[in-house]
């Protein structure tokens, strides 16, 4: 592994991390439509900050191969994926029944390039899981991913394909247990539902609860059957601040790590839990949000960082840039460097913004009750449930450097792309790599077996 991916020492553990960062230059071009709060342009803003802060030089920067239809169907229903592939803005009038059936319309609109967008963000998350499985990095980052509401047969909450479930399924090929943590302000319902009846995946969601989308995530919802107590929900009220949030996050996650001992962790870093979000009502600072990343990094367990919600896009870019630095162990300046989107960040032109003075409706008594209840649930678990592997599914394949035919075939998908990205403000070039998943029937058999054993929700 090239030393260029090694991070700088930082934090209490003081050790380096190798980071793989997935980014497709086209992802910022997708547009949900006028007035829609979800703006993929925020990924381009985040990437520009990473470039001008000089963080790309400390990571392996990768352009993911698009997830194929077969990859998406490891979790999603065939007819739903086929519909996403076919539907266009011009054909919606002919597909009204299908649009209603698959919940595609207002919150989840049809826009130009919809299926390619799904392939792109899902490909980055699956690719990150593959890199972790191969031991090619300690932390994989895909800020375009984290779309946690999508269900097996329908879109939901701006999410069409559940890249998180697909990435976890990839991780389960290598790891007996995978931990999923969600710090988006919205409940991670799609991921919880997918793994609600298995102990191979533990889901922990910290979210606003009560008359708030998607309406799920009660503290009493904790799994079923073999998955009993392997779903943890932390229901929160408006205005929660950094100190209150960490008074729950750290003790609960510490106990989870001690009892469950996951082989890999997926952390969904939805930035709509930040203060001042267009759709959110929490009061976290960028540093308070990033403290969750810092804490998970300290366990030195393979870690996949994903994006998610976030609708005040200047703050989303601030947050994910800073959290990339945390993953690397690089502390970056508050004063923002000049870059092509600098006007978004005025008048402060800083990375950090002060939280508001909104009321914190989460009382100390309420927080104590939640913490005690969830720690009690964790005490009922057997330590590190074992899994009987009949045959380990093969890892997704990586092309070797000398396989020119495969590489050239990939590049035909991106004729304008020469394998490098130039940034005027930075000397030198950033090498980007391709990932090529290869079909393997045994992979599908392994997923089928997991489904039959309660690993994936089948309804």
Automatic annotation (TrEMBL):
Biased composition annotated in UniProt, kind: Basic and acidic residues: 423-459
Keyword set, alphabetical order: Chromatin regulator, Hydrolase, Metal-binding, Nucleus, Repressor, Transcription, Transcription regulation
Cited SUPFAM superfamilies: Arginase/deacetylase
Binding site for substrate: 107, 157, 311
Residues spanning the signal sequence: none
Broad class of the protein's primary localization: nucleus
Domain of life: Eukaryota
Compartments where located: Nucleus
Cofactors: Zn(2+)
Active site: 149 (proton acceptor)
Any single Gene Ontology cellular-component annotation: histone deacetylase complex
EC number assigned by the record: 3.5.1.98
Biological processes, Gene Ontology terms: epigenetic regulation of gene expression
Region of interest (Disordered), residue spans: 389-459
Gene3D superfamilies xref list: Histone deacetylase domain
Family recorded in the similarity comment: Belongs to the histone deacetylase family. HD Type 1 subfamily.
Protein name, as recorded: Histone deacetylase
